[in-house]
Design goal:
Two copies of one chain form a homodimer. Chain A has 187 residues and is of the alpha+beta class. Chain A contains nine helices and eight strands. The first copy, chain A, has a domain of 105 residues: Jelly Rolls (Sandwich). Helices cover 51% and strands 23% of the residues of chain A. At the A-B interface, helix 3 and helix 5 of A face helix 3 and helix 5 of B. Chain A binds a DNA duplex (30 and 30 nucleotides) through helix 9.
DNA sequence: CGCCGAGTTGAACTGAATCAAGAAACGTGG
DNA sequence: CCACGTTTCTTGATTCAGTTCAACTCGGCG
């Protein structure tokens, strides 16, 4: 929990009251490897902070699993589309490792927004960061080659190779597992 | 200006005071076709609301112009990365038609955030919408074929064909102009 | 020991890029 | 209002990155 607070106060300072309110509203969750945090068709009611562990978001396309994001330590994770719109999710969120998470429901978060301007500000700033990250990934996906994307990934999250099966990484990069294997064999 | 207010109060309701404050802080701008709103290397200080007209964001890669977004009526436009971080922009924003815009500076917006919780909320909600939009585009870019992406675009913004040169659209879709031409010849 | 999932390797195929040339549309000045 | 150059769009031939399908290797585990 301390990790969560220090992480978010990096985004913006928070008064003691607001910190306490947050502390009371997040609920600790521990889940085992391979379990699901969310399956398609459900409405995603929670925003999660990942304290320890790893997970992936994926959806099914023509009978194939498409992994389109990973979550690691200190990431906020949720099915953004479903969480924001409260519509049924098209994606699944699955644990890649046993993990410790902190969860807050959409309703609770909305109440906190009403009570504390500074918490809503925090969220606004978090969205800014996440928007920029996504924009970068988008540009990479559309305008870089498979090898460039792989090298990029290695620089940004070198540890990912040891923690995530190659098939998922290939899917994340938008290439087939065979192609990733060939890219790797050429260093 | 009325258009701007009705558009944003669709996102979230605003008190009269907040609406007045906003009205006083946006500045009207009219610019001619082909002119630039921003060129790479500059810091983007403004968030714009596009009342009438069209524009594109593009950057240079290996001597080629890559158009990666368009703005039309009722869009908020800016170089998000540069506006958020206040670092030098990598992209250019150019007018595709003579346009009417409303501009607000980052400093002024920040002041409004401090004064009006509800305006910061509005921005938080705007980011949510824009995040979802970008996420959708990302998934399309990575996992759909060129023709599917073109058909998608036609459904979402059918008018785009008459207003934007095909070369820019091809670039936006992440394909070459020749390929787009061939896709079109097959309806 | 033999199975199973994860990763690698090979060969044939394909969607889209590139290079090159031509056709159509557009705008500006005489 | 036409003539000319420029920009925009199309068409064809070739090339290439990455997919697909299929077989094979390797390490772990019941």
């Amino acid at each position: 929990m301390q990790q969560l607070l220090t992480h978010i106060t990096n985004y913006a300072p928070l008064s003691n009251e607001a910190q306490h309110a947050l502390q009371n509203c997040f609920e600790k969750i521990t889940i085992a490897k391979h379990e699901f945090l969310l399956t398609q068709g459900q409405v995603c009611r929670y925003l999660y902070f990942l304290e320890k562990g790893a997970l992936r978001g994926f959806y099914n396309l023509d009978g194939k699993e498409i992994t389109h994001w990973f979550g690691f330590e200190k990431d906020f994770v949720t099915s953004f589309h479903s969480f924001i719109t409260q519509e049924a999710a098209v994606e699944n969120i699955q644990l890649l490792e046993g993990s410790i998470l902190w969860a807050i429901s959409k309703e609770t978060l909305t109440q906190l927004f009403n009570q504390y301007h500074e918490i809503e500000r925090l969220m606004r700033i978090a969205y800014e960061k996440y928007y920029i990250r996504l924009e970068e990934r988008f540009v990479n996906a559309q305008f870089k080659t498979a090898s460039e994307r792989y090298e990029n990934l290695l620089q940004q999250t070198p540890h990912i190779i040891e923690r995530v099966p190659l098939g998922y990484i290939a899917s994340y990069l938008g290439i087939s597992q065979e192609t990733l294997s060939r890219i790797r064999s050429k260093f």
